[in-house]
Design a protein that fits this description.
It contains 27 helices and twelve strands. The protein is α/β, with parallel strands linked by helices. Among the domains are: 157 residues; 244 residues, Rossmann fold (3-Layer(aba) Sandwich). The longest helix is centred in the middle third of the chain and has 83 residues. The chain starts with 33 loop residues before the first helix and ends in a 6-residue tail after the last helix.
């Protein structure tokens, strides 16, 4: 025991309310760069090569076994301008050339009726390519066609027809197959149609394409001929009907003219002027009669009042005016019974009679003349009205007859024009280029297919490589582990052969310049330099899960420190699965459990390995709960005593995710290092480890990557090893 060494107090957690997880605990995500993608592809280049080879092999098998197809093209153009052979309006107008018309013609070119004519004309129902029942051997590529695969899926799912299967019509079946081999393309910004036919025979493709164009143009001509014939027949019927109507209208005009006593329009005008003159004479007579009858009112007034001089002024008689003045001059005292007054009034009455008689005679003459003129005007007016009504009726009948004549003449003209056009009907399309027999097959295109397979295989293989890289949660480099956790990675220890586990410590002595020795020294240096002012004396080595190399790492760390001449103690605290006995090739009879129970002394449980130059305390299975053992005060005092006896202490604890022992022991140590096996430990495991230490308020000093293969990492381009491994391996003597 070195008495001059001061005691180091027990390591306790920070007084903070809780240890915060590192920033990268959420997954360590960062932007994926092109270097990452190319690195993933490079690491799985054999996968990419295999997928590419399979794709090229499949493409090669396809192009060598697929049925050759030959494509023939015929070019048609729609005629939107009418050819005026005769200067007559056509019954069936030409095509306008708009989008709806073009789409309609596309449907016509693919119609069943048109293709059925081609099938019958070329007798395609007896061709095995268009009659599946006549085929003897079907290639495997035919069973991989979309239609065949869809039929198989429907049959497997029971979605096919449920009734008794009917044998299809050979023509209908051939038309459906021909529709699948036919493609009609419209050239952009034009009225040019390209009809493409793909069959197994070049001559057959050209013949079918030419027949489709021929029947299409023939159908257009036949349609125009039929429409013109129907129009001619209909116009003929209309002409006959209109002729009968015209003859009936003219007969009605003639009959009405003979049955009515019509006068001319000039006679009606003269009669109208005569009536006007009679009405003017009648108006003059009425004015004269009114003027002649004017004295009667004054005479009647004087009969009532003989003294009215005012009324007497209106009577054309001086005697009457004089008598009226005399009577008016009589005094008011003279009564009406006065003989003098009575005599004057009698004389007034006689004078009035003499004046009234000629006036009445004149009025009688005027009344007779007026009555005669009124009767004449009435008779003339009635005659004019009758003649006018008859004339209007005649005009109506005449107009109807004239209208019938015009319609009859128009339909007669159109019938003659249509009859002329019936023999000169032309199609609205013409052939620009007939189909020729193709020289080489259109399908399959060997070069293009193989090129696409090569490119597709490379892309698919690269996609699989990148996908596997993205789905792989294992750590592939110390840099990746450090980036994910945000915690220092002290180093990477190469893979040690488990079958030579007992010779690993001797390997460090025999080959001090080996990559394993240098890696352990790098781990020791990084661990000690993590806190230069207070380098750790007691280090706990643990792992996320069993098999991560924590025991070997702990032994190597202890051995490499013992090689410096320091007093080193290696303690095995995995009471559940002790493995130090395999490493040091001994079967200890005592262990740390006996020491903590007080049954053995320290000298009795410490095993001295002279080859490694270090002391070892083995673990042993015990009936006690290991967690309770490590939580005891006796264990804390034991560790405190070991600090005073040894310069460097390494403790090997059970895996963190298996049992809580490591978290309990870590409270007494200066440094906590977790081993992460290369390409074995996953991100969820490391995340769980860090979460457990954070929940127990225990600080994690760092990680060390174990079972690392630097040569493979260099080949696969992982981390910095891909750049400096080739240069540094010259310094190692393995």
């Amino acid at each position: 025991m070195r008495s001059e060494k001061s005691a180091i107090p027990l390591r306790t957690p920070d007084p903070a309310p809780g240890v915060q997880p590192p920033p990268a605990l959420d997954g360590g995500r960062r932007d994926i760069t092109l270097s990452d993608i190319f690195g993933a592809i490079r690491r799985r280049r054999w996968t990419v090569a295999l997928v590419t080879a399979i794709a090229v092999a499949l493409a090669l098998a396809f192009v060598t076994t697929a049925t050759r197809l030959y494509r023939a093209d015929i070019v048609l153009v729609l005629e939107t301008r009418e050819k005026s052979v005769v200067s007559l309006d056509s019954v069936v107008s030409g095509l306008s050339g708009d989008a709806s018309v073009v789409n309609t013609e596309l449907a016509v070119l693919r119609s069943r009726n048109l293709l059925a004519q081609v099938v019958r004309d070329l007798d395609l129902t007896s061709d095995p390519e268009f009659a599946p029942d006549l085929r003897e051997d079907r290639g495997w590529t035919e069973y991989l066609s979309p239609g065949a695969l869809f039929a198989l899926v429907k049959e497997a799912l029971g979605l096919g027809p449920t009734g008794p299967e009917r044998k299809p019509d050979p023509v209908v079946e051939a038309v459906e197959i021909l529709q699948g081999k036919l493609n009609v393309i419209v050239q952009p910004n034009s009225l040019v149609f390209v009809i493409q036919v793909e069959t197994e025979s070049p001559e057959k493709s050209a013949a079918i394409a030419n027949r489709i164009g021929e029947f299409y143009i023939r159908d257009q001509q036949q349609i125009k001929y039929d429409e013109t014939a129907r129009a001619t027949a209909w116009l003929s019927e209309q002409v006959l009907q209109l002729k009968d109507e015209l003859e009936a209208a003219e007969a009605r005009v003639e009959e009405y003219s003979l049955s009515s006593n019509l006068v001319s329009e000039e006679a009606l005008g003269a009669m109208s002027r005569q009536i006007k003159d009679l009405r003017e004479r009648l108006s003059d007579l009425r004015i004269q009669r009114d003027a002649e009858a004017a004295p009667l009112e004054a005479i009647n007034a004087l009969r009532l009042d003989p003294s009215s001089t005012r009324a007497a002024e209106q009577v054309p008689s001086g005697e009457v005016r004089r008598l009226a003045a005399e009577i008016d001059a009589l005094p008011d005292t003279v009564s009406a019974s006065d003989p003098g007054r009575a005599a004057l009034e009698a004389r007034m009455s006689a004078a009035l009679d003499r004046v009234e008689a000629p006036v009445l005679d004149a009025l009688a003459r005027f009344d007779g003349q007026i009555a005669a003129l009124e009767r004449s005007v009435a008779a003339q007016t009635a005659e004019i009205d009758r003649q006018s009504a008859d004339l209007v009726t005649l005009r109506q009948l005449t107009r109807e007859a004239e209208a019938s004549r015009l319609i009859y003449e128009y339909f007669l003209t159109r019938m003659k024009e249509t009859s002329v056009q019936q023999g000169i009907a032309e199609a609205d399309a013409r052939v620009v280029s007939n189909a020729i027999v193709p020289i080489r097959p259109f399908f399959p295109r060997s070069g293009l297919t193989l090129m696409l397979a090569l490119v597709g295989g490379l892309v698919l293989g690269a996609g699989i490589a990148v996908l596997r890289w993205q789905l792989d949660t294992r750590f592939r480099s110390p840099e990746e582990l450090e980036e994910f956790t945000g915690v220092t990675v002290f180093g990477a220890i190469p893979l040690a052969n488990s079958r030579r586990r007992n010779k690993i410590l001797n390997y460090l002595v025999e080959r001090p310049s080996s990559s394993l020795a240098e890696s352990v020294r790098d781990f020791r240096t990084s661990l000690l330099m993590a806190n230069p002012d207070r380098p750790p004396q007691m280090v706990l080595i643990s792992s996320a899960s069993p098999g991560d190399g924590k025991t070997t790492t702990a032994a190597l760390l202890a051995h490499i420190n013992a090689m410096l001449g320091r007093r080193v103690l290696l303690i095995e605290c995995d009471l559940r699965r002790p493995t130090f006995s395999q490493l040091f090739q001994i079967k200890p009879e005592t262990g740390i459990a006996d020491l903590l129970r007080g049954e053995k002394t320290l000298e009795e449980v410490v095993y001295r390995d002279e080859g490694a130059g270090l002391d070892v305390i083995f673990a042993q299975e015990t009936g006690l709960n290991p967690s309770d053992v490590f939580s005891s005060r006796r264990f804390a005092e034991f560790l405190q005593e070991m600090r005073q006896r040894y310069d460097f202490i390494v403790i090997d604890s059970p895996p963190v995710l298996a049992v809580p022992d490591a978290r309990i022991i870590a409270r007494h140590t200066d440094a906590l290092v977790v081993c992460a096996a290369w390409r074995k430990v996953t991100k969820p495991m490391i995340r769980a480890v860090m979460r457990q230490f954070a929940n127990s308020r225990t600080s994690l000093s760092g990680f060390v990557m174990t079972k690392f293969d630097p040569a493979r990492a260099s080949r696969e381009g992982y981390g910095e090893y891909s750049t400096y491994y080739g240069a540094s391996k010259a310094y190692h003597r393995n």
